[in-house]
């Protein structure tokens, strides 16, 4: 089965305003832009993705393997009204985090419009009701108050401060169980 045929077997989800589709190599230009926004670099970190080729490699090596292994991972968020690629939301099997890590990031022009909650709420419900996941975790920096508020709005509770492998920064760990 070719990769293109295989990709169509992974689930796409919809909300009132959004399509959540598994990120694919064809999304490389968008991923390049997103990974280089000031907030991504400040809160998530510089992934050293500086060219379109870097973005394609990042998708192939960092995003697609989990999708192929688990059937879910990083989703590109597309606004239904104009097909604009606005951000990403995903369930990540992240080293150093117990349970799946829910994460989200948007291009600056789409922040503050409720899209992150809409997409994250959908993925949280899908995780519990379709994928059989029992616990969702999230990590965020101490300075990312908008992320902290969103996690709390999703029903996640602050558990403790933690660090993840290869990163010395102390992060806030949030969790919710089914």
Automatic annotation (TrEMBL):
SUPFAM superfamilies: Acyl-CoA N-acyltransferases (Nat) (SSF55729). PROSITE patterns: GNAT. Residues 18-177 form the N-acetyltransferase domain. The keyword Transferase applies. InterPro entries: Acyl_CoA_acyltransferase, GNAT_dom, N-acetyltransferase. Keywords: Transferase. The keyword Cell membrane does not apply. GO terms for molecular function: acyltransferase activity, transferring groups other than amino-acyl groups. This is RimJ/RimL family protein N-acetyltransferase. It comes from Tenacibaculum adriaticum.
């Amino acid at each position: 089965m070719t990769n293109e045929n295989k990709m169509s077997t992974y689930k796409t989800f919809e909300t009132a305003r959004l399509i959540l589709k598994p990120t694919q190599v064809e999304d490389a230009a968008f991923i390049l832009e997103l990974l280089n926004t000031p907030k991504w670099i400040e809160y998530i970190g510089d992934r050293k993705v500086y060219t379109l080729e870097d973005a394609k490699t990042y998708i192939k090596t960092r995003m697609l393997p989990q999708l192929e292994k688990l059937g879910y991972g990083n989703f590109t968020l597309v606004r239904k009204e104009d097909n604009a690629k606005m951000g990403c939301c995903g369930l990540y099997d992240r080293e150093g985090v117990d349970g799946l890590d829910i994460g989200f990031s948007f291009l600056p022009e789409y922040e503050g419009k409720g899209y992150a909650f809409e997409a994250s709420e959908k993925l949280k419900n899908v995780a519990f009701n379709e994928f059989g996941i029992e616990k969702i975790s999230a990590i965020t920096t101490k300075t990312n108050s908008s992320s902290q508020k969103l996690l709390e709005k999703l029903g996640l509770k602050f558990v403790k401060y933690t660090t993840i492998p290869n990163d010395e920064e102390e992060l806030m760990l949030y969790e919710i169980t089914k």
